[in-house]
Write a structure and sequence with these properties.
Shape: globular
Strand content: 5-15%
Oligomer: single chain
CATH topology: Rossmann fold
Helix content: 40-55%
CATH architecture: 3-Layer(aba) Sandwich
Bound molecules: cytidine-5'-diphosphate
Number of domains: 1
């Protein structure tokens, strides 16, 4: 069973994906890390994020060991990832990789922006996790504070709004709700409540063995 989870920044899709993967004993791929790793490879090489040929080459050269770098997690890399991810050549280079992962024996949980729409259009379960921009900014703000990277709330909110617009407005695999996705709005849901809502959907489809 493939569980496809999409949604905007800080909606809680990563937290949910991890918990579902542990619960159903499925491998999990945070696909945002792939785009973050492409951006980091370019920045490390002193190259411009808008250099399409270099970005495509970096995406083709990506291998799993790049995904463990702690520098991938910061908000600067999220912003950089959203710039390289708008380039169709980068997306095309990462597509097979993601599909191979999704094709692994028992199934998989993948989270990102275009899993239900492009990467795994036949996924057994598609969830679209969202929350108001203000609530997402509060979460990200709290997270950054906790990591000792204090930033003004307003700056976090404007970063989120800019990234939402870039991800939704691009022509290559824009962020949108797949027709057959179940929307989970977590504005008023904590991680436990979101998990319960999601397992209700998955179990309703017969679970990973169904
Ligand atoms: O992966 P994504 O950027 O969508 O979000 P996340 O990293 O899963 O969650 C962002 C933050 O919101 C984390 O600190 C979560 O603990 C928190 N969170 C929450 O407050 N309520 C939820 N329902 C889910 C996550
Ligand atoms: O955790 P957060 O939602 O902040 O970021 P992420 O999921 O790591 O994604 C970083 C950026 O990568 C997003 O803003 C998207 O532009 C891009 N991305 C994408 O285009 N397609 C995906 N499947 C995953 C991420």
């Amino acid at each position: 069973m493939v569980i496809a989870i999409d949604g905007p920044a800080a909606s809680g899709k990563g937290t949910l994906a991890k918990r579902l993967a542990a619960h159903y004993r499925l491998p999990h791929l945070d696909t945002g890390l792939l785009y973050r790793a492409v951006a980091l490879a370019l920045l490390d090489a002193g190259l411009d994020l808008a250099d399409r040929a270099a970005a495509a080459a970096a995406a083709r050269a990506l291998s799993p060991e790049f995904l463990g770098d702690a520098r991938l997690r910061g908000s600067a890399m999220g912003e950089a990832a959203s710039i390289v991810s708008a380039q169709p050549e980068v997306r095309a280079a990462l597509l097979d990789w993601q599909r191979r992962f999704a094709g692994s024996a028992a199934g998989a949980v993948l989270d990102g922006r275009d899993i239900g729409t492009v990467v795994c259009p036949d996924a057994a379960v598609k969830l679209f996790v969202t929350a108001s921009a203000e609530e997402r900014a509060r979460r990200r703000h709290r997270e950054l504070d906790g990591r000792g990277e204090p930033v003004a709330y307003e700056a976090v909110l404007s970063d989120i709004l800019r990234r939402d617009a870039r991800d939704a407005d691009r022509s290559a695999a824009p962020l949108r709700v797949a027709e057959d996705a179940v929307v989970i709005d977590t504005t008023e849901l904590d991680a436990d409540a979101a998990f319960r809502a999601a397992t209700g959907v998955v179990d309703g489809r017969g679970g990973p063995q169904g």
